[in-house]
């Protein structure tokens, strides 16, 4: 099978030869696109790879990449591949400790730094022994600037393509339960997955992609960057958070992926503009008006030309997917992990009857349940190992090569999968009974007053739900919010086993963010962090009550 997989640098040469003058990368600067053709990208890739050789970096060296998404991120990634270097992408929002750990653990010799919001707070993580190279943006001081690198030496040409089994990148997991682990992905695993995405989703040169989710995360690296390598599709970028909506409209993507948090934010903004969900539902029942409203909403989001919408990285409430389907936006939920190149299971073609599932396995991916209901997956996209961690690697695979995902699943008669919990998320209450929090959270999430939530309960008599209110709900009178949440608890508790019923909902006062270490860079909640913060505080709260954090003892 590997002899049919091509590397991204082979594909770059192919597109430069067959459509070299076509626009590939579209970088907005001051609200205007600065376009690069395939030939221009190829030229910069070769110049950059030549500069790295000139600076004494050798094939096999690890090189970090710390930047928000931009055209130069793609160019740097391709240059590292061409030169035989191993890339170590780091989230642009990562704190100094995380950056330092990734660089030290990987033994990176150099790092590219680029578009960053808080580089002054991150700079201390990069010691003097690591060579700093900068992308052409306002960023931390570096030994070599982008423009200097492009003229530093002769271009690197006439070198063999990377061996397909060669390590391409170390992708560090988001670390929701501890220190990040470095997943070793080869050109074979990455190439197989990207080619599969292109074949399944049928992306081609007529499509338009938009890159804005972190490229340090495997989903964006495969679904957007990777699919562009193998489909010849042009890619636009987002200039800043402030210009996001205009950037999406300017890019007019035909394929668009997002995460549940953003889909919920888009939904809220739409409802706020119309006035209420009730008013929207009324408008959607009017034959001619319905079509106009749907078109207006799509245009407002910049998604009127989208043929494919996706959601991943975390569970999305079925009610949210159903709401979007009602306005003509069918969002395909997908499931994947860093360890399997993020592409294994997807609800595509979109099947509205299966909302709430993550879909079916793609061709080439095998799935089965372990004895404890754990989802086990096997595909050519699986990582080679965890870097410098043989013990965890061995514990993560079955003898016949299936990866233990840590997700608990259910499989229906049609082969559609649902994630019902996490093996490590399940906790034991003070009564000695185990509780699976994820199914409870899915039920609670139907309450529109809730933006984010986390059910905890290790060592407590009963589970407690910690809640972040949605923006609109936070402005409402407490009694009104309390009544809604109380009704939600009262409707859910009878459906739960007695030991799993919710004792209380606590509305927390401090937002959960990446900066305060409650969220991972992929916006997953770190349950163990909240357990540590709140278990003692909420112990003793009884009777299906609703309290704000400032009302606790």
UniProtKB/TrEMBL annotation:
Domain of life the protein comes from: Bacteria
AMP-dependent synthetase/ligase domain segment(s): 13-387
GO molecular function (one): ATP binding
Keyword Chaperone attributed: no
Keywords carried by this UniProt record: ATP-binding, Nucleotide-binding
One of the record's GO cellular component terms: membrane
Name of protein: AMP-dependent synthetase
Organism from which the protein derives: Parashewanella spongiae
């Amino acid at each position: 099978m590997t002899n049919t997989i091509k590397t991204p640098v082979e594909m770059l040469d192919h597109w430069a030869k067959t459509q070299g003058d076509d626009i590939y990368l579209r970088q907005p600067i001051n609200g205007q696109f600065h376009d690069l053709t395939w030939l221009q990208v190829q030229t910069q890739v070769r110049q950059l790879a030549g500069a790295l050789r000139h600076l004494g970096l050798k094939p096999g060296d690890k090189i970090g990449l710390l930047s928000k998404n931009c055209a130069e991120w793609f160019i740097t990634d391709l240059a590292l591949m061409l030169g035989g270097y191993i890339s170590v992408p780091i989230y642009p929002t990562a704190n100094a400790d995380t950056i330092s750990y990734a660089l030290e653990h990987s033994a990176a010799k150099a790092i590219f730094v680029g578009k960053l919001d808080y580089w002054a707070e991150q700079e201390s993580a990069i010691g003097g022994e690591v060579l700093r190279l900068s992308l052409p943006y306002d960023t931390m001081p570096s030994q070599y600037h982008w423009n200097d690198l492009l003229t530093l030496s002769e271009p690197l040409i006439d070198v063999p393509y990377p061996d397909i089994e060669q390590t391409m990148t170390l992708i560090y997991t988001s670390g929701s339960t501890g220190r990040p682990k470095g997943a070793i992905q080869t050109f074979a695993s990455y190439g197989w997955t990207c080619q599969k995405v292109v074949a399944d989703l049928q992306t081609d040169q007529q499509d338009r992609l938009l890159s804005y989710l972190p490229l340090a995360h495997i989903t964006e690296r495969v679904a957007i960057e990777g699919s562009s390598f193998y489909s010849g599709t042009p890619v636009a970028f987002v200039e800043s958070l402030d210009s996001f909506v205009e950037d999406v409209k300017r890019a007019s993507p035909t394929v668009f992926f997002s995460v549940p948090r953003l889909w919920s934010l888009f939904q809220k903004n739409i409802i706020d503009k119309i006035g209420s969900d009730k008013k929207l539902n009324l408008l959607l029942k009017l034959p001619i008006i319905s079509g106009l409203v749907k078109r207006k909403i799509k245009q407002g989001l910049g998604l009127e030309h989208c043929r494919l919408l996706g959601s991943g990285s975390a569970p999305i409430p079925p009610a949210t997917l159903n709401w979007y389907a009602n306005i003509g936006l069918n969002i395909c939920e997908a499931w994947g992990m860093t360890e399997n190149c993020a592409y294994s299971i997807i609800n595509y073609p979109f099947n509205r009857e299966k909302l709430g599932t993550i879909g079916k396995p793609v061709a080439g991916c095998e799935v089965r349940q372990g004895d404890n209901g754990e989802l086990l997956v096997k595909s050519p996209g699986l990582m080679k190992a965890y870097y410098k961690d043989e013990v965890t690697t061995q514990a993560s695979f079955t003898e016949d090569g299936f990866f233990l995902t840590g997700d608990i699943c259910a499989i229906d008669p049609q082969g559609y999968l649902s994630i019902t919990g996490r093996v490590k998320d399940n906790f034991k209450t003070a009564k000695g009974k185990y509780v699976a929090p994820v199914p409870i959270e899915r039920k609670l999430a139907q309450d529109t007053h809730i933006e984010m939530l986390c059910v905890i309960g290790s060592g407590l008599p009963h589970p407690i739900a910690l809640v972040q209110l949605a923006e609109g709900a936070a402005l409402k009178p407490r009694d009104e919010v309390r009544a809604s949440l109380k009704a939600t608890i009262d409707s859910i508790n009878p459906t739960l086993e007695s030991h799993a019923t919710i004792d209380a909902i606590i509305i927390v006062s401090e937002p959960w963010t990446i900066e305060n270490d409650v969220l991972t860079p992929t916006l997953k909640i770190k349950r163990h962090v909240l357990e540590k913060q709140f278990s003692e505080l909420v112990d003793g709260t009884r009777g299906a009550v609703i309290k704000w954090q400032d009302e606790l003892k």
